[in-house]
Amino acid sequence: MSNFTLRKKKRRLGVEYVGYVFLLPFIIYLAVWKIFPMAYLSVLSFFKWDLISSPEFVGLKNYIRLAHSEKYWAAFYHTFLYIGGVLVISISAALLLATLFKGLDVKGRTIFLTAIFIPYIISESAGGYMWMWMLEEGGLINYYLTKLGFSPIHWLSTPKWAMFSIIMMSSWRLTGYNAVIFFIGLQSIPEIYYEAAKIDGATGFKSFWHITLPLVRPMMLYVLVMSMIVVSQAFTPIYVLTGGGPYGSTDVLLLRTYNMAFENYQMGYASAISMTLCVILMIIMYIQFKYLKPAEG
């Protein structure tokens, strides 16, 4: 083998190693903060541990216990009611806003997209306290309701309104981010498709249904997955606004995990609750990828 060939191979190997060096910080972060905690959580779910005594292996007892727990199933229902409500409202509103913004001039788009993106960069605790101020009995929303002749609504102290209030707060926070992503997707659709549809006599709704929605599927998949990840990890809005009340009507699995782990010191049981949520979310995301992934070719 010639010296030239050896030098070429060494140069190629050097380039490959440089790539791995740049990836190393992310790999370390992923291993330390994602993979190891998930592995530790899955193992801990088979133990009974109160943070003081030594962990005691109990097998499937934690899972059997939560399967027979009415509070777990109530939190399970509230979790997916919350996730479903936020996804439907935030994604529908975001797609509608992105479609409307597409028709504005460049300056108008920038102003409105910036304005609706601001809630996403506000901290969850600050946003939660702001909504608490608006939703309390003497708050801003009830003030205007009484001015219009309506009775004040107990937004956070009645079960039928508490979950609705949390869904609206989380939807408000996510809509701007999703609208920006959809707007980017809409910008990539050639105008010639809409012009051809208009010549064929298609209405605005038909153009949206047969052109916009199919071509925005990659963005829809991304928005669905990212929104589900964000919403499923929502803890602060619920903790700040209701703390799981009233009467457990907003108790979700993540809040229940926190209460079991850090108030009742049942770390194994809390880990089992977290693992069931993780498995269910992975199944849902697999279904999303299977049915929303753009077709090959």
UniProtKB/TrEMBL annotation:
The keyword Transport applies. It is found in: Cell membrane. It comes from the Bacteria. One of its GO terms (biological process) is transmembrane transport. It holds the Pfam family BPD_transp_1. Residues 76-288 form the ABC transmembrane type-1 domain. Keywords: Cell membrane, Membrane, Transmembrane, Transmembrane helix, Transport. Signal peptide: none annotated. The chain crosses the membrane at residues 17-36, 75-98, 110-132, 161-184, 221-247, 267-287. SUPFAM superfamilies: MetI-like. One of its GO terms (cellular component) is plasma membrane. PROSITE patterns: ABC_TM1 (PS50928). It is a multi-pass membrane protein. Belongs to the binding-protein-dependent transport system permease family. This is Sugar ABC transporter permease. It comes from Aerophobetes bacterium.
